């Protein structure tokens, strides 16, 4: 009986120790990796991790004109520094999309340390399968082929959305601005409105009253042909920045007389509304153009 009791006690003790060991192992497996330290050059889903220097992060957000009114989304947010900087220094609401779950948890802890958890958030997700269409600013440090893969989605975002990339461009979509900091390069694009097509409008001012403008577009680069009262003119200095467009129409009245009219407007779908400066400098005239069926 004593032997039986001793054996029973031994079995019970082993069971308790084994259960405690298993519980501790499970807890350790499920507990957040509070001591996780990422290594520069470590493999990721699409790229290796190399952090953007803080000085360049600051400059990228500066050239994008980030303010407290913006919603910044960082594609491949790594340790969260861009998101945290946007939230802490500029007061923006910001989201980091990162595939590595350890990086996501690290970023959340970093945001908490900086006191910006309310404005800086992070999600474990694939940037190619995530909807970030509400962003007003996109930041990224990817690779050229990944930029190109994202380009159709980015180009379809709301006109005026600012996009900043560390190091890599988007092929033949020319940047609106290029900046260098400590030997590193940042590229800025402003998503342009879609303006290609035939536009018509009339103005109540001296000179021609009806205009026809045919525009061709490659991202923010635009060229066109114009007619004023069915007479061929020239359209010059077309500039498209987000949903804002400006251009000059040169009208030929006689052999030596050229009348220049400067137009500025805001594009909204199939309409443009703005003002035209009178050629004699006497004031401005409102104009509204409508685009025909595509």
Write out key terms for the chains shown.
elongated; 9-stranded antiparallel beta sheet; 5 helices; disordered N terminus; 7-stranded mixed beta sheet; 294 residues; alpha+beta; 25% helix
Folded structure, characterized:
The protein is of the alpha+beta class and 294 residues long. It has helices spanning 2-30, 54-63, 81-90, 101-113, 144-155, and strands at 71-75, 93-98, 120-124, 137-140, 162-166, 177-181, 184-190, 197-202, 210-218, 221-228, 231-232, 234-241, 244-252, 258-268, 271-277, 284-291. The strands form two sheets. The protein has a nine-stranded antiparallel β-sheet, with no helix packed on it. It is elongated and about 80 Å long.
Which strand order do you get reading across the main beta sheet? 11-10-9-8-16-15-14-13-12
Estimated share of beta-strand residues: 35-45%
Supply the helix-strand structural class: alpha+beta
Tell me the major beta sheet: 9 strands, antiparallel
SSE pattern = HHEHEHEEHEEEEEEEEEEEE
Anisotropy-based shape: elongated
Distance between the termini: 96 Å
Number of strands: 16
Fraction of helical residues: 25-40%
DSSP helix count? 5
Q: Spans of 5+ residues with little confidence (pLDDT < 50)?
A: 1-32
What is the alpha-carbon Rg in Å?
Answer: 29 Å
Based on the structure, what is the oligomeric state of the protein chains?
single chain
Averaged pLDDT: 89
């Amino acid at each position: 009986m004593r032997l039986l009791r001793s054996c029973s006690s031994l079995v019970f003790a082993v069971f308790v120790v084994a259960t405690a060991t298993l519980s501790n192992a499970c807890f350790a497996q499920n507990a957040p990796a509070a001591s996780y330290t990422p290594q520069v050059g470590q493999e990721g889903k699409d790229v290796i991790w190399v952090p953007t220097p803080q000085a360049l992060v600051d400059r990228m957000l500066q050239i994008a004109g980030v303010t407290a009114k913006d919603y910044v989304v960082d594609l491949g947010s790594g340790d969260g520094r861009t998101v945290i900087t946007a939230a802490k220094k500029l007061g923006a609401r910001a989201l980091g999309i990162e595939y590595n779950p350890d990086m996501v948890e690290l970023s959340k802890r970093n945001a908490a340390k900086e006191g910006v958890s309310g404005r800086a958030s992070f999600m474990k997700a694939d940037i190619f399968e995530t909807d970030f269409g509400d962003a007003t600013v996109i930041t990224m440090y990817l690779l050229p082929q990944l930029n190109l893969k994202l380009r159709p989605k980015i180009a379809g975002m709301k006109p005026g959305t600012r996009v900043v990339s560390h190091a890599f461009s988007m092929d033949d979509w020319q940047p609106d601005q290029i900046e260098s900091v400590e030997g590193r390069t940042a590229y800025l694009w402003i998503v342009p409105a879609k303006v290609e097509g035939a536009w018509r409008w009339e103005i109540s001012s001296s000179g021609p009253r009806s205009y026809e403008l045919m525009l061709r577009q490659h991202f923010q680069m635009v060229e066109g042909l114009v007619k004023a009262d069915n007479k061929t003119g020239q359209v010059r200095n077309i500039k498209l920045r987000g949903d804002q467009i400006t251009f000059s129409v040169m009208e030929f009245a006689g052999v030596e007389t050229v009348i220049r009219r400067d137009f500025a407007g805001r594009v909204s779908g199939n309409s443009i509304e703005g003002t035209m400066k009178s050629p004699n400098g006497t004031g401005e005239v409102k104009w509204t153009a409508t685009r025909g069926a595509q």
